[in-house]
Design the sequence.
């Protein structure tokens, strides 16, 4: 990275902001991608089917999300290596392939969800699926094949900020305060359907590709130990922002759809758009919802496909950096292209796959023991001794990981039974 940081700079307020703005990116981008099409639809389902009863969970997940992704920052900065590479060096190639296989499964599910969202938004405005998918895939390939890490990061942030329209819509939604407060005290844990959506929401917040992406992005951006504090703030700001967006979608769905009983599932983008925006009018409602959903889909598609390209590169040893020209790192760009083009083609040829979005998030929750287990093990073993997890914070992280994994797996399995 080009920013120059000395030991005296952080003492000055202006210099602190310069350091923060220079570091800003990996955490914000991955968190904006976290609120992807599947996450938006999961939040909408949560509000439509259970009202405000899952709202508290959105805010409880903020510190959990931060704790998990902060470990990727720590590992990326103090080892200078991506997640897959570090697993390979620390635990051997077999475990590295186990990890990247989980990444591949999560990547396929995520990309199908993102491109289904793109196709759904296009159909809202009468654009044929083939056209919307071709334009989206072409845009993504052009940005990554012709840009540096810094350029790709800036484009991703610009796309992700369109998600903020969901917050504006929530501020105009007809929310009833008495129903809102009642939702905080009514938690139907006895219902398998409720537990299934709890698992889906957990899986919508902590995903395997996020771990791979942020650690690899920190390493690719060249962040240094003296920038660690700023990188943690980057992650913290992103964690709050993504969950505020999730809460906004849930609030709108609860205000417009929930009537004290389970509502029918929302299986398509057009169903969600019609349900969430009646109080804004069709034109304005569809426009705002389309912008938010398209931004979520595009930033997530960039992050997911890059996470796969980085992950496979780290495990196999081929060159894997956005700073390389495509001819210098052909396999890195080929893997990215296969993810983008393959996802777009499957969605173009298959029926509407948006209905699978909640299921994809539950799948992410079921993979949490593997993903978080590797992450904590690396933080204990692979970091320099002075930066390893130890003492009370190690127990806090272990407790968060065990609790989150247990809830995700238990909720997912009970909902499937």
Sequence:
């Amino acid at each position: 990275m080009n920013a120059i940081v000395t030991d005296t700079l952080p003492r000055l307020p202006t210099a602190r902001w310069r350091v923060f703005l220079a570091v800003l990116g990996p955490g914000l981008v991955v968190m904006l991608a976290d609120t992807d099409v599947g996450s938006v639809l999961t939040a909408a389902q949560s509000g439509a089917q259970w009202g405000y009863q899952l709202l508290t969970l959105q805010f409880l997940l903020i510190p959990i999300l931060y704790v998990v992704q902060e470990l990727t920052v720590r590992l990326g900065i103090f080892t200078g290596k991506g997640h897959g590479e570090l697993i390979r060096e620390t635990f051997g190639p077999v475990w590295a392939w186990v990890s990247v296989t989980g990444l591949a499964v999560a990547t396929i599910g995520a990309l199908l969800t993102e491109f289904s969202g793109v196709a759904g938004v296009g159909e809202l405005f009468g654009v044929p699926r083939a056209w919307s998918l071709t334009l989206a895939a072409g845009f993504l390939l052009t940005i990554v094949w012709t840009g540096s890490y810094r350029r790709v990061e800036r484009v991703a942030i610009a796309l992700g900020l369109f998600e903020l329209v969901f917050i504006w819509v929530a501020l105009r939604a007809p929310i009833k305060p008495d129903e809102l407060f009642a939702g905080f005290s009514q938690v139907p844990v006895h219902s398998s359907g409720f537990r299934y959506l709890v698992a889906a929401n957990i899986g919508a917040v902590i995903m395997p590709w996020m771990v791979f992406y942020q650690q690899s992005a920190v390493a690719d951006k060249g962040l240094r130990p003296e920038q660690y504090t700023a990188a943690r703030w980057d992650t913290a700001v992103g964690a709050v922002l993504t969950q505020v967006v999730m809460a906004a979608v849930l609030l709108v769905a609860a205000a417009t759809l929930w009537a004290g009983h389970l509502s029918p599932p929302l299986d398509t983008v057009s169903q969600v758009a019609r349900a969430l925006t009646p109080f804004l009018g069709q034109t304005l409602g569809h426009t705002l919802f389309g912008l938010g959903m398209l931004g979520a889909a595009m930033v997530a598609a960039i992050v997911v496909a890059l996470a796969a390209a980085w992950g496979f590169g780290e495990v196999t040893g081929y060159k894997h950096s956005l700073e390389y020209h495509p001819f210098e790192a052909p396999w890195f760009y080929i893997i990215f292209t296969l993810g983008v083009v393959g996802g777009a083609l499957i969605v173009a040829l298959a029926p509407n796959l948006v209905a699978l979005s909640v299921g994809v998030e539950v799948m992410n929750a079921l993979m949490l023991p593997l993903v978080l287990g590797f992450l904590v093990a690396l933080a204990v073993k692979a970091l320099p001794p002075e930066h390893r997890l130890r003492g009370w914070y190690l127990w806090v992280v272990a407790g968060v990981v065990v609790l989150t994994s247990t809830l995700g797996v238990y909720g997912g399995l009970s909902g499937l039974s």
About this structure: DSSP finds 19 helices and no strands in the chain. The chain has one domain: 26-416.
